[in-house]
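Continued from yesterday's entry.
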Amino acid sequence: MELVERWVALAGPRTRRIGADLDARYGEEHRRYHTREHLTAVLDLVDELSAYADAPDTVRLAAWFHDAVYDPQRADNEERSARLAERMLADTDLPTDTVSEVARLVRLTETHAPAPDDRNGQVLSDADLAILGSDPERYAAYAAAVREEYAFVPEEIYRAGRAEVLSGLLALPTLFHTPPASERFEDRARHNLDTELTLLKATPPQDTSPQR
């Protein structure tokens, strides 16, 4: 099923223009990891974990918006994505509390630290972070794609910033919250993160990027 049709099946034919807009956003040329493929993977895992959410369709809507705004040169992408959701969904028939919940969930993807009773947040967070628990080859491809998105950042600065992100994730009491995701991804994710962090802290290679 094409992504736009998947959106229509979720939100209704009257919102097709929203689905088309979001599809185009995930297809932006500067994206290397935060792409349609990533969105599809998140949506697929939300479907798998839907029984653990209080409002699965609300989580699906939040998944659509969670990386709708993605500019590697800015630090407020989650907030801007949440505001986009509020603005675009305000023109639909969705209840106000549903729109508010979608925006809250999108903002949650900045920290990936849902509360113990936040079942919706746990499902979205688990789906978004599942790549961390992938096999080593796929994880390496993910890490390389993220580096490409930040190609404008000098190597030494990127390594320091990326290490901070990874350390923050490793400091979380648990990366995954639903039983299936925890069993499937937790141990491998921590191994992948530890491995990448070790590589980042190793002697950096000579930066051969063009000087500007």
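--- second protein ---
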Amino acid sequence: MNSSATSDLYRDITDFARTTPSWFQHLAELWTEAGLLLFGALFIAVWWYARPAGPRAVAVAVLAPLATAVAYVCSELTKSALTEERPCRAVAGAGASLIPCPPVGDWSFPSNHATIAGAAAITLVLARPVLACLTVPMALLMAFSRVFVGVHYPHDVAVGLVFGGVVATFVVLAAARPVGALVMTMRTSGSGSARLLAGPGQVRTADHAGVPERV
């Protein structure tokens, strides 16, 4: 990947970062990792919220973190194949990054953080569309923070966001039906842990004896 096109933008952003107050710099450093934890908490909340719903809703909620993990693995494989050096070492005239530059061999393109953020944001929206107003800004801020602290080029995070979103969406859409069928099986299982994971379902109709069915 030719990084020269965004080297100037990288320098502009990192130069601006060093003019900001120290508390703001620390906040940006914290957000690059804390955002991942917040996405993790949202995965759990969305799954719990979906448990009383239909099997497809539960399937999408369960697949959201799994699809994000698949996107991360694909990103890591791509990084290893392309071996783009980090801008904190490669960009001439750039100041020191706000956090330690990752070691040689921890490649730059695409950004794993941005890939995870893009994948998490989109899959959470697929599970709960109302979350778009929260997860999309979270993903964009996390991606930008990786440039702000000096460890990624702008194109690393831009491609990472799109890459993560596309891969994770494909995984969710491809697996939703079989996982939904598995959820139905788990709901009728004698295993308490299986029923806990799949949820009780929702009352849909009554059978011929007047007993409500759960879906």
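Confidence is low (pLDDT under 50) at residues 205-215. Residues 47 and 62 are 6 Å apart (CA to CA). Will compare against the first tomorrow.
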